[in-house]
Design brief:
By secondary structure, the chain is of the alpha/beta class. It is 26% helix and 21% strand.
Amino acid sequence: MNNGTACKICGNITNNRIYMAKERLLNLRDEFPYLECANCYCMHIVETPDNLSKYYPAEYYSFRKPKFGLSPNPFVHYLKKSLLRHYLKKIDPVGAFLALFLPHPFPWMKPNLLSFDSSILDVGCGSGRVILSMQRSGFKNLTGIDPFLEKDLRNSAELKILKKDLFEMTGSFDFIMLHHAFEHMDYPDRVLDKIRELLNPSGTLLIRIPVANSHAWRKYRTHWFALDAPRHLFLHTPHSIQLLAQKAGLTIDRIDYDSSFVQFASSEKYLRDIPYSDDFSMFSKKQMQDFSREAARLNSLGDGDCACFYLTVK
């Protein structure tokens, strides 16, 4: 239905639709209205809950501690760094051999994007799994922040994992990344303005997010797993990201779609009113293979439900 509510990204008030979405991840079933813009196709929650922290309990998946230790075996550290050097297009015979058997540990990390000495900020890092893994692969200047942490988890010269809000940050960074964090943040225009302030002139911003107006949204609507009410305050599209980037003095250099089988497996469970879990044993091996193949096909068409946006300063 259309009630004249304006899109928070482009301001459009014509032909927008309102959908009622339930909280499903924690199986609380609270309902929230979401607006789908008829112009930029962004979806956003109509009103951010005052008690948003309720939906980020201590057991929330991004706060789970990594299974690996903080100090890797030196030999394992060497192998991981060699593998990554190869995938970053550096000459490394050991890494080239390992790549015959092992995939890229960070598929979103493109060649010539980073060096091992780059200053890196992970916004919305949770327990720091990504930057801890990056440290084990040879990176030396890593900072992660998340306001929903109970306390700082690590604070050293090489690696920091801090209970901190983005707007408390100072300094400058060569690479700022948000791995499925941007959709959790209110006032995305202010967020990008702050990131632009923290980003070195030659730096890169990576935003990995679920994508609205994708095949999975059109197929599942309010049962789409990545809608994730009310934690996902905004579900963007390339159009809405472009509008925000222009306002912040940034430009989109590249978009890579990286959706997976989860868009189907988890959404099918929600469609059957089955609470969230990462147990997909209800699906046959063939079904799971079909989900993965369809995800790859949609990614190639630019219609997957998740994407990586690479932005630089204009």
